[in-house]
């Protein structure tokens, strides 16, 4: 029996769109790049701190011989309209069921199918593993690095979730595919924050996808470029010509049946933690919690530039959460400096938290200088 062919066939039956195989040699070419990122403060809090674990599969799984990498497309079609009073966008990566669960389930099924023919040792990860999954996908022949640093498959495009299984199996590795972006720079030109500083070089701390997840303070100038995005960002992928012609996903798990691709901002501020988990707990974007999505919603309201939003935001200057009061201040002033100044000056008089008061004063100066 051709064991590799058997695994590929079973992966298709399970609903895995692409699969590739790689050896477990160190990813030595990335070490200098990772060190440079760290030295230039471009490393995020979500990354594995031990660089050796990021590039050496055997540091993660000592008996590793072959890495099986899979890709599942989430490029589903969905165009239903929503009638929310205030709505914020959710990235396609968080439209339907949490992809961590979906992809892990598919990999679990594949592991069981392999075990029917051969017993083996393994460890498997989706997104949260220490190794650089995109590099493993490239090495496994699943796709090439786009200039936006996403892995692009010529058939399914870049809207693919990646998972990998470290195994002690001996399987012939696949060949890497050639880069296919050629002279196209559309993704670099389209990036709202300039996070794609050059081809194949992303500054994650400027990326909107990162900004919507970090608990750190978001720089004022980057808030203005986030638009109405509440979680994630698809801009560089939507503009990609490969994605425009890519085969659409048939995975119903990723259809946004509940959210329809948007957050109801007004409702978000009425939900308790329990209610939030009940409604949004199924989606990947819920992992950061209710308050981070509320913070992002405040930025979205400010970027809508609708004066009527000020009345909604004004009430949030009394919210019990200091972060909400800070970002509500930014949002009000970003909508209208003249109306906002008088509102914030009054809020400063009654604000008891010195940190919040200091931020309100700082924002007043920032917007006054900006509008001079």
Automatic annotation (TrEMBL):
GO terms for molecular function: 4 iron, 4 sulfur cluster binding; epoxyqueuosine reductase activity; metal ion binding. Keywords: 4Fe-4S, Cytoplasm, Iron, Iron-sulfur, Metal-binding, Oxidoreductase, Queuosine biosynthesis, tRNA processing. InterPro entries: 4Fe4S_Fe-S-bd, 4Fe4S_Fe_S_CS, ARM-type_fold, QueG, QueG_DUF1730. It is an enzyme of class 1 (oxidoreductase). It comes from the Bacteria. PROSITE patterns: 4FE4S_FER_1 (PS00198), 4FE4S_FER_2 (PS51379). It holds the Pfam family QueG_DUF1730. Its EC number is 1.17.99.6. Residues 171-201 form the 4Fe-4S ferredoxin-type domain. The keyword Lipid metabolism does not apply. One of its GO terms (biological process) is tRNA queuosine(34) biosynthetic process. NCBIfam families: tRNA epoxyqueuosine(34) reductase QueG. This is tRNA epoxyqueuosine(34) reductase QueG. It comes from Anaerosalibacter bizertensis.
